[in-house]
Amino acid sequence: MKNLIAVLFVSLISFATYAQDAKPKIEFKTNVIDYGTIEKGADGKRTFEFTNTGNAPLIIENAKSTCGCTVPSWPKEPILPGETGEIIVKYNTNNLNKIAKTITITTNAEPKTVALRIKGMVVEANKTSVLEKKSKSIIEE
């Protein structure tokens, strides 16, 4: 009887220790997406792919941007260990100028927050860069 109690006690402690070690871990393929130079009104949707490389379900609690021109969407259901998911970011390409935005992801993993970045440049659709103008004029000569 004492042996049975001892085995149950050791099993319970082992299970409790394992449960404490079970943690999700989020790993992104990349933390930065470069839009490059895109035209006004172009498709501003980009995707950050990630994998739960931990040993417990990953929950994305929130995703928020530094401004309203960048809207992230994320999976609301838990991502099981070994599974992949996507954070989709939509940038409003009607805003001309440089793109430099940060999307903060909050999860139940360690560390709790991950910063993702988008960058690039939005130009007028009918505007040609100085380099393109110069190369066209050289070709025409």
Share of residues in strands: 35-45%
Identify low-pLDDT runs: 6-10
Q: What percent of the residues sit in helical stretches (DSSP H or I)?
A: 10-25%
Largest sheet: 4 strands, antiparallel
By secondary-structure content and strand pairing, the structural class works out as: alpha+beta
Give the gist of this structure.
With 141 residues, the protein is an alpha+beta fold. The protein has helices at residues 2-21, 130-140; strands spanning 26-28, 32-39, 45-52, 60-65, 70-73, 84-91, 97-107, 113-123. The longest helix has 20 residues, at 2-21.
Structure overview:
The protein starts with a helix and ends with a helix. About 4% of the residues have low confidence. The relative contact order is 0.22. It has 141 residues and is an alpha+beta fold. It is built from 2 helices and 8 strands; from the N terminus they run αββββββββα. Strands 1-3-6-5 form a 4-stranded antiparallel beta sheet, with no helix packed on it. Strands 2-8-7-4 form a 4-stranded mixed beta sheet, with no helix packed on it. Helices cover 22% and strands 42% of the residues.
